[in-house]
Amino acid sequence: MDKRINVAVLVSGGGTNLQALIDYEKDGKLNSGKIVKVISSKAGAFALERAKNANIDSAVVEKKGKTQAEFESGIIAELDKCNAEVIVLAGFMCILSKDFTDRYKERILNVHPSLIPSFCGEGFYGLKVHEAALGYGVKVTGATVHFVNEIPDGGKIIMQKAVEIKEGDTPEVLQKRVMQEAEWKILPASLEKVCSSILKGE
Ligand code: GAR
User: Fold this and answer.
1) Ligand 1: which atom is nearest the Cα of residue 93?
2) What's the confidence (pLDDT) of residue 2?
């Protein structure tokens, strides 16, 4: 049997990392997984368009007006509907509780746009991460894919890739380079690695 792991991708914004995952699967490289659903914490996120264009089922679960427990129950209901076995946070800008992360131990992956443990944790997301790296004056940054636990950006590292900082970089320019050279490569590769290990029973 050609068993593949059901993967749900959680997003909040533009979804370029989601696109990298979609393209990787389209190119026949996601041998051990299958993207079955995209869940957005924001209605109108462009990532939802990307899901639609790729014929992937999607849902919106917003945080606004809900307790953390209600928000997470909403996500779990969507994950259960599609029998998701692995969850990818791809530009998902909400913190998840210990109850949630314990439920999917070593089954949630996140991509973070720095070399953890630098420029990570609560408050470090999106462009803020690159502003902090440039502000500190580091010469090398990069991206990290890690498992998600109750500590923001604190779970076991799966893959990292370094990216050079160049003279005159702005946060926007650096963000683009980190995405192109690191995030869009190591996120799909990490997903395949994790799904393949699960199938092998590791
Ligand atoms: C990406 O750079 C991702 O690493 C970052 O937000 C961006 C989302 O872009 N995530 C975080 O900062 C999480 N802490 P995308 O929606 O185009 O994939």
Assistant:
1) 13
2) 77
